[in-house]
Amino acid sequence: MSKSKPLDQSLGVTPLPVEAGEVGDGVSKDIQHDAVFGDITEDGPNYRNVGWLGTAVLMIKTQIGLGVLSIPSVFHTLGLIPGVIILIIIGGITTWSNYIVGVFKVNHREIYGIDDVGELLFGRIGREFFGAAFTLFFTFCSGSAMLSVSIALNALSMHAICTAIFVAIAAIITFVFSSIRTLGRISWLAWIGAICIIIAVFTVTIAVGLQDRPSTAPEEGVWKSDYKLFNQPSFSDAASAISSLVFSYAGTPAFFSISSEMRDPRHYTKALVVCQTVISTAYIVVGIVVYYYCGTYVSSPALGSAGPVVKKVAYGIALPGLFVTAILLTHIPSKYVFVRILRGSTHLTSNSTIHWMTWLGCTFGVTLTAYIIASAIPIFGGLVSLVGALLGTVLCFQPMGFMWLYDNWTKGKQDPTLKWRLMVIWCIFVIVSGTFLVVAGTYGSVDGIIASYRADGGTAAWSCADNSGST
């Protein structure tokens, strides 16, 4: 390797002088110093090795696995036209939020997670609040992904074994692959996962357009889709539906971690454009087509909307993608805890025993917690909706409004321009709308949990019951 490289501060990596120590054959080593990870050498993992295409697919997989399968049922709740309009609005706001993540990371290279942002904005209280919210949110998302894997395995095997065993299998495989130490080496899994999920949902989308009627529709008589351009949901139902749309774009807080492992953060915006274009197109096309052809009989998850045969085919294609969702959503909070524990220590970027014990302890701890939450809580589905409404919006809207104000308020108010004034108004809108969605979404989720519990009491802990809806 070359012993010196031009200093490029915009990358957040500073080449240091060659160390006096020798590699085994007497060849000296390069050391790069990163503002987050410290000294990166050949003796440890390279945490700065994700290209822009890898970044784009990690972004896509972080988001598209969260909510694409619920979009058609959201359109059913809101009506087709309001559903599409609100989806575009939320997509636009979260795209701006994601962009601000990249800008803020370049301006503050020491930022690794949203807890670091919280400390800059609100001190120690902000750090602990956002750190806890981030960990809790993605741990619940990891548990939800494990349940999604169990649904797929049940659908494919016709409920061959107890569902609790399928969840345990999902947790074991998730632990093994989420323990890959760098996003650079996980990005190949993200490619597989994103492609599988997209092919699966478009398989269902095409199938519902070709079938005579949805699988759950009445079998007798002429059937015509009863889709609604406008619907009249209750406030609670509408709030829950909008929260689901926010949840579909709620990968934003993970983008801090992803951008921190990019080789060249200057390509962040290019990766973001690819990501948001792909997922927004998929959401709109899948949502409109599936709901248009299925109407009231749309399934959630959407993979069950085209009958048992297509359902099996779709789940078979989607299964690797569902596993990758669980893996990625476990790796991200594990990495956050790991970096927070070892940050500033040489063990962070070495292959030491302490490094490996801490890393595997983090991935095992997050996996086990997600598994226990997913398996033991009788109202897990409603609780995921509550966590998404309560924490998803808090992590995707308000911080980014404050982040722009933090970087631009002082210098802008000295000589305020029209652009600066409009941006201040926009940031206030993002903060206020995010706060409203937190309150409304939380209310809707709590109301839904109460209604669900009254109806069936939730599911039993470590249940063996088939959760795939197979008949």
From TrEMBL:
Keyword check for GTP-binding: no
Signal peptide as annotated in the record: none
Domain Amino acid transporter transmembrane span(s) in chain numbering: 50-443
Regions that span the bilayer: 50-71, 77-101, 129-152, 158-177, 189-210, 238-259, 271-293, 313-332, 353-373, 379-406, 418-443
Database matches in Pfam families: Aa_trans
Single GO cellular component term: membrane
UniProt key word Heme: no
Membrane topology: Multi-pass membrane protein
Subcellular location: Membrane
Alphabetical list of Gene3D superfamilies matching this protein: Amino acid/polyamine transporter I (1.20.1740.10)
Gene Ontology molecular function: any one: L-amino acid transmembrane transporter activity
InterPro entries attached to this UniProt entry: AA_transpt_TM (IPR013057)
Keyword annotations: Membrane, Transmembrane, Transmembrane helix
Family indicated by similarity: Belongs to the amino acid/polyamine transporter 2 family.
Identification of the protein by name: N amino acid transport system protein
